[in-house]
Amino acid sequence: MNTQATRAAGIPNPAAATARAILFRRYRMYGIAVAVLSGMSYGLYSAFMTLGMSLGLWSDWYKKDSGLSAVASLFLLSALGAAVTDCFSALWALLLAAIKGKLGDVPRSWKTRPGAIMTVAAFIGGPLASTCYVLGLQNAGSLVVPLSALCPAIGAILGRVIFRQALNMRIMTGILICFAASFMIGSTGLTGNAPANLYLGLLFGLLAALGWGVEGCVCGYGTALIDPEVGITIRQITSGLSNLFLLVPLFGVIGGADAAGMALAAFTDGHSVGWFVVAGFCAYFAFMLWYQGNAMCSAALGMACNGAFSFWGPFFIWLVLGVYYGMAGKNMPPIAWLASLVMIGGIFLIAVNPLELFRRGRQGREHHEAA
Whole-angstrom Cα distance, residue 144 to residue 43? Predict the structure, then answer.
C-alpha cells in the first residue's frame, strides 16, 4: 500500500511511527542526561560552598575564641553561607536570563499565579531548607547529603497527605528503602571517628529534606507553566534575598552579633568569595537542569536521576576538600557510601516503575525490528 493510500485509509505510516519513536527515545535519553548532570551540579555546589565556608574570615568565625555566641556560630553562619551562595546564584540567573533575552519575562511571570506559587516554594526551599542543609553540612559533614536526598520520599508522603495522591506498593517499598538507607547513615555515629555533632547535623539534614519535599509538592504546578530559566531566576532571587534580609538579621539579633557587618565582610572576603561565586553558578545549574530534565524525560524519571546527588555530593566534597585541599574528615565511612547507593535505588523505585521501563524498551526494540 502506498503512502497516499495509507493516509486515506487512516493507517499510521510504519516508517513515520518508527522515526517518531526513535526521536522520542533520543529526546528522553537527552533529558535523562540533563537530570543526571543536575545531580552532579548539586554535588559540586555542596562541595564549593563547604570550601568557601572553610576559608578566610569563615575559618576565623568558626574558632572557639571568635567572640561569637553559640547561637551565632551555629545558626547565623549557616544562614549567611546559604544567603551568600543563593545571592550569587540569583546574579548568575539574572545574567544568563539577560543574555538569552528572557529578563523581561521574569517580572511578567512573577505577577502570575504560577509565579506566586514559585515564590512560596522558594521561601520554603530557600531560607528554611537551604539553611538547614548548610547547618547539616557544618555539623555532620558529607553524611548529610544522602540524608537530604530523602526529599522525594518525603514529597511522596506529603503528596498523599496534602493532595490525596495514591501510594501503591512500589512507592511504599521505595520509601522504606530510602528510610532504611537513612538509618544506615545514622549508624555511622556508632563508630569512633564520627563528627562531634553528628546527630544534630543529621536532624538538620532531615529538616532540609522535609523543606525540599514540600517545595517539590508546591512547585510542581508552577514549573509546569513557567519557562525553566525564568522559574529558576524567580526561585533564586526569592531564596537569596529572603535569606539575606530575613534569616540573617533574625539570627544576628538572637545571637547578639553584627549580622550586617558580617554579611558585608562575607561578600568582600577575597579568600572565600570566589568559591561562593562558583557554588552559586553550580546551584543555578543544579536547579535549572533539574527543571529542564523533568520537562524532557518526565518529572518522575528526572527526580530519580537527580536523586543521584546523594552520591555526587559526598564524592565531590571528598575530592575537592579532602583530596585537593587535604582537609581531614571529608570522606565517608564505607557503610555511608553503600547507603547513598541504596538511597538512589529507593528514589528510583519511588519515581519510576521498572517494569514499565522494561516494557517501553521492549516495545521500542520491536518497532525497530519491524521497520
Answer: 12
